[in-house]
UniProtKB/TrEMBL annotation:
This is DUF2124 domain-containing protein. Pfam families: DUF2124.
Length: 160
């Protein structure tokens, strides 16, 4: 896989994701499933879900790789996309792996994620990470991503 585009800011993450999903031409009700760390990945999942809110798709968040804990993403008026308390059955047309899963000290291993992804082989695979985390942790060699969005956070300025 080679670099095809370099964008910036939050739209630089969301626009290519929406373009990829739109270009797939998925059937109405097809499912996008995001796997990530509760709390830290969730806001980014909700941003990605918001970017494709106008497509007739089902969206689900899975904490880590615990598919029994899968929850539907829902639009909340005047708030945005939110993970709901409503359980979901997982059947992804697109699997989205969040980079937090690859970070050290996360309670899942690469092998657990590989097993989960392997159970959904007909699904397209998208990776969304920050600061080259998939590359640093060797996940580019382990997963056959159809799209990778790798964002950089710099600089972070603090004023007091």
């Amino acid at each position: 896989m080679e670099l095809s585009e370099q964008l910036s800011s939050v739209p630089g993450i969301l626009r290519p994701f929406k373009a990829f999903i739109t270009e797939m031409g998925l059937a109405e009700g097809a499912q996008i499933v995001y796997y990530g760390c509760p709390g830290t990945c969730t806001p980014f999942v909700e941003l990605l879900a918001f970017a494709i809110r106008d497509l007739p798709l089902s969206q689900v968040f899975v904490p880590y790789v615990d598919e029994l804990g899968a929850r539907k993403l829902r639009m909340v008026t005047e708030v945005g996309m939110q993970v709901s308390a409503e359980p979901a059955t997982v059947n992804p047309a697109v699997t989205v792996l969040m980079g937090g899963l690859s970070m050290p000290n996360v309670p899942v291993s690469r092998d657990q994620v590989l097993t989960t992804v392997g159970a959904h082989q007909s699904s397209a695979l998208v990776g969304v990470c920050f600061m080259k985390m998939f590359e640093k942790m060797g996940w580019l060699e382990s997963f056959d991503f159809d799209l990778i969005i790798d964002a950089t956070i710099e600089p972070v300025n603090i004023w007091k």
